[in-house]
Amino acid sequence: MPELPDVEVFRKYLGKTALCQSIVKVEVFAEDILDDLSQKQLQSQIEGHQFESTERHGKYLFTRLSDNSWIVFHFGMTGYFDYFKDADWPPKHTRVLFSFDNGYHLAFVLQRKLGRLALTEHINSFVKKQGLGPDALDKSFNLRAFKKAVTGTRSSIKSALMNQERIAGIGNIYSDEILFQARLNPKAKASRLSNQGLKMLFRAVKEVLETAIDSGADPRKMPQHYLLPRRERGAKCPICHGEIATMKISGRTAYFCPKCQST
DNA sequence: ACATTGACCTGAGAGC
DNA sequence: TGCTCTCAGGTCAATG
């Protein structure tokens, strides 16, 4: 699940649960998800401290420690947080477990080990090192910046939207939703979009991501005219009631309505 | 040089 | 029931 809206929901979840609790213990159950650091380093950096604030850039979540360094979470395709009280059995696939002095625990859960945990001194340097583009919901990411990010490539508009070096935060399913709301074909060449098309697309980016966050990133709570809850074979388009189709674009499955998104 | 594919992991679900 | 095959909301290195 974890694209920008999901990570934003995780950020809020952390804010309501584990924030500002003293961390008494850190356990790592899968050292291979640690990025350039050992379990020992992580423990000495974190134990006795607390998560003091949170930030997000694209699909990355940052939590600040009292020494002003940051822990970086990336959720891969299957990651999430689980804050719970009973210590006896952490959730299946818990890769890192933080325990607090109030008796609660925060599990960083990854079924597939495609997520990451890292440490960084500054968010900006991490973002730069990863080569991430501007966050899709950042205020300064305006129409002008969007045009710059999305044009100047020979690839399809869907690939361009998903490219984290161009825009940070949009993945496979939200690129589909954005293109559906903008009534644009996923295969359309990014460089061929009209000014009007780019404007509509930009609006769709902001609107879809904000709406998804407001829905708690839960497809069941999204508006009726959204494609997202209908990502299955044989589903009907919420606009024209035609059949939803799929195609492969840069290795990912795109869902779209051939009628509403013909160009 | 740039864009696309395969590898990385661990299941879930379909089909036989 | 159990086996095999395909697919999954991400990224990176290798390939064309």
What do these coordinates show?
- This protein has 263 residues and is an alpha+beta fold.
- 28% of the residues lie in helices and 20% in strands.
- It is built from seven helices and ten strands.
- It has helices at 4-16, 39-46, 123-130, 143-150, 157-162, 172-181, 195-214, and strands spanning 23-28, 53-57, 60-64, 70-74, 80-84, 94-100, 105-109, 116-120, 245-249, 252-256.
- The strands form three sheets. Strands 1-6-7-5 form a four-stranded antiparallel β-sheet, with helices on one face. The protein has a four-stranded antiparallel β-sheet with strand order 2-3-4-8, with helices on both faces. Strands 9-10 form a two-stranded antiparallel ribbon.
- Strand 3 (60-64) and strand 4 form a beta hairpin.
- Helix 1 (4-16) packs parallel to helix 7 (195-214) and helix 6 (172-181) packs across helix 7.
- The longest helix has 20 residues, at 195-214.
- The chain is globular and about 55 Å long.
- The protein binds a DNA duplex (16 and 16 nucleotides) through helix 6.
